[in-house]
Amino acid sequence: MPFRKTLFTLFLTLPILFTHAEDTRTTPATHGIAVTSIDTSVRPGDDFYHYANGSWINRTQLPADRASLGAFNLLVDRSNKRVAAIIEQAAQSNAAPNTDARRIADLYRSYMNEQAIEDHGLTPIKPLLDEIAAVHTQKELAHALGLSLRADVDALNNTNFHTANIFGLWVAPGFNDPDHYAAYLLQGGIQLPNRDYYLTDSPHMKDIREKYQAHIAKIFELAGIPDGPDRAARVLALEHAIAENQLSLAESEDIHKANNVWTPADFSTKAPGLDWPEFFRAAGLDNQQSFIVWQPTAFTGESALVKSESIDAWKDLLAFHLLEAYGGTLPKSIADERFAFNGTVLQGVTQMRPRDIRGVTLVNGILGDAVGQIYAKQYFTPESKAQVEALVANLKAAFKTRLQTITWMAPSTKKEAITKLDALQVSVGYPEHWRSYASLVVKPDDLVGNVYRSDLFDYHYEVARIGTPTDRKEWTMEPQTVNAVNLPLHNALNFPAAILEPPFFDPKAPAAANYGAIGTVIGHEVSHTFDSEGAAFDDRGRVRNWWTPEDFAHFQKATDALAAQYDTYHPFPDVAVNGRQTLSENIADVAGVSAAFDAYHASLKGKPAPVVGNLSGDQQFFLAYAQNWGSKVRDNTLRQQVLTDPHAPGMYRAATVRNIEGWYTAFNIKPTDKLYLAPNDRVRIW
Question: What is the pTM assigned to this prediction?
Fold first, then answer.
């Protein structure tokens, strides 16, 4: 939320700039499943995840700079190396000013020029800190909050925006008018991953809060701001109060509760406390006629805090959030302190990624389309595009057959569902047009300025789109991104080039491996069209109820059973998966694997599947799926994922197979096996 449905959430925070890392489990030369990853000492019916991945997990050690290792890492690492080559080409080209090649080269240089960063010190950010220090009245505070409003399309699976502001802006097709872009406002204003980090009283969370307060104080000290401990206490207390007013991720995923249209006048009556006219004027939104307020109770509560809490507390929060947001671009002492908390305390990582890799991440984050154009030309062939498009067509056909043969759905509902599937737009590899960076100024010796100008550039780009016609060919990822996405408001799917690589997609692999790996990815994204959130939208992306009451009751009963199934998973004694928070992704997994399995069998055209390593085609299919999710994860990272991610951890995604009839036959699963579900308990939704 809000609202794009991805295959997985990549833990990546720009100022820290670390990614998942190289996965040595398999190589592109291995065509098909990784047989050496299988642990035959584990019964597949007891723990299919460790059966498929156990040998690799047992022999793999996490390096100090890694939060996790997994199947995606091989692709992320490969993509990063290719982007590094693109950056090097740009640097060697001596490109003319105001060209994308020059911007790429200069942005990377600004990050790699550590001496210039040290020489500049806090000078680049001092004017922004001075503006905050100059706030003395409620009107000036509202102005400062409005100035700091940002649009963030990379945090769409989070419950809050990690910015200096207490709210965030998201621009997307409107819930009620999907043919035009609308302005959505969302809760924000906290720096810890989500509200649970403030409100949960477990020993683990109390320890994190103590270390967080010490971190805030240290950041103030390093920035030369006096009375750091007192300021830190005020910041933590204010963030705690903000968190008390926020909705959980599970609550925020109810689209009908999010569809709240407010006029500018409504804010002063429904959320008093903040000088809203001044806020909107500073944010450049004073001419906007309406907003969709995603979490209205949070807006009411957080706005009241603007008036009830001291201006000094708000100034401390704004200053700390600013330093935290730009910490990775400031001198080493601040960057190291920021990593010590966000990387080590929160995720258990004790060493930052090498600076050159962090520089690649920065360039991808700011100039993604400029890099993506080159990436698509150099690394994604027309043949691969055609093959994946054929896979997509097969998956859509399999899903359509499943819809047509559903017995519980009324003809009117079934007709709407098939119409929506037929209208689904699928883009493979790269978009049809690219974003222009012509007005973005990038300097080779001004890292803070480059990041600040890019933030404003993105914000102004998004604001300018409000009210304009929707581009239904729009992409929200770049070709070099290892992920996939369903855009319910567009009724569209994007499959970037970087995920369409071995081991996910390999033209030389058996069909069983491709359908089990990339086929289930495609099926997952197609299935999001009809998950617990996607089912609220029609074929045009409009929020509309196209269900009969009886059909929706059946749908809810099935999804309730799936949520209850995932509620039973406990990665730690004191932490459980939230079946409601992860429901839409779990639906997509169950339905996606089912459709991909059907499509795989259809692709055989009645011929027997090749046996590989004594493994049948069906066994290869399910193993390929489970190996998608094989990973080694640090405990703190896993805890954070469970609390903040709409996706269940990989070991439980692999266990999705317990709902698929074909898995029971393929591995001769018995009622005595731990994953066994009686036929009536197996969840089938589509």
Answer: 0.92
